[in-house]
């Protein structure tokens, strides 16, 4: 049976409170679980004690093969129970495809406007220097 250490939501509407539980991976999020091993109250200020963990039970379930979810692994890493590897996603901060296309179009318009302004400036100075041609006589 694949075991997961994950969050189970409790609390009322717009007032979340989460239990950290060990559950079968196939059971629903707020459904049946094997054991409650901690709690997380995100409504408390960040400097308060937001996360409570039962370290001995967590170590027991880790030795049994329970896999923590990413959020639970963050809590365990901060408590020094388990280590969370550094993640690298170089494209996370980049704008989406359409936004990149709009940015490229905007830059192209700016370059075209600058080139047109330079041509207009050159055309403005050029006619004063060249002599005008005479019309042919009939």
Give a description of the structure:
Residues 114-130 have a biased composition (Low complexity). Belongs to the bacterial ribosomal protein bS16 family. It holds the Pfam family Ribosomal_S16. Residues 79-138 are annotated as: Disordered. With 138 residues, this protein is α+β, with helices and mostly antiparallel strands. Helix content is 36%, strand content 22%. The chain is built from 3 helices and 5 strands. It has helices spanning 55-64, 70-79, 97-125; strands at residues 3-12, 15-24, 35-40, 51-53, 67-68. The longest helix has 29 residues, at 97-125. The chain is rod-shaped. The termini are far apart. The mean pLDDT is 89.
Averaged pLDDT: 89
Strand order of the largest sheet: 4-3-2-1-5
Looking at CATH, the homologous superfamily of the largest domain is: Ribosomal protein S16
- Text of the CATH class of the largest domain: Alpha Beta
Largest sheet: 5 strands, mixed
Beta-strand content bin: 15-25%
Distance between the termini: 105 Å
Count of spatially separate domains: 2
Which fold name fills CATH's third level, the topology of the largest domain? S16 Ribosomal Protein, Chain: A
Q: Give helix and strand order, one letter per element, not per position.
A: EEEEHEHH
Rg measurement, Å: 33 Å
Class derived from helix and strand content: alpha+beta
**Could you list the spans in which at least 5 consecutive residues all have pLDDT below 50?**
none
With helices defined by DSSP (H or I, 4 residues minimum), what is the helix count? Answer: 3
Tally the beta strands.
Answer: 5
Per the principal axes of the C-alpha atoms, what is the gross shape? Answer: rod-shaped
Report the helical percentage.
Answer: 25-40%
Region (Disordered): 79-138
Protein name: Small ribosomal subunit protein bS16
Family: Belongs to the bacterial ribosomal protein bS16 family.
GO cellular component, one term: small ribosomal subunit
């Amino acid at each position: 049976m694949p075991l997961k250490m994950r969050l189970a939501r409790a609390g009322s509407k717009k007032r979340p409170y989460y239990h950290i539980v060990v559950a079968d991976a196939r059971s629903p999020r707020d459904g049946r679980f094997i054991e409650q091993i901690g709690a997380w109250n995100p409504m408390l200020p960040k400097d308060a004690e937001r996360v409570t963990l039962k370290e001995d039970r967590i170590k027991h379930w880790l030795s049994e093969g329970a896999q923590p979810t990413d959020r639970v692994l963050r809590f365990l890493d901060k408590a020094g129970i388990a280590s969370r590897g550094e993640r690298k996603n170089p494209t996370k901060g980049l704008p989406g495809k359409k936004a990149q296309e709009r940015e490229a179009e905007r830059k192209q318009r700016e370059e075209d406007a600058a080139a047109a302004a330079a041509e207009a400036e050159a055309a403005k100075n050029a006619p004063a220097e060249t002599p005008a041609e005479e019309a042919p006589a009939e």
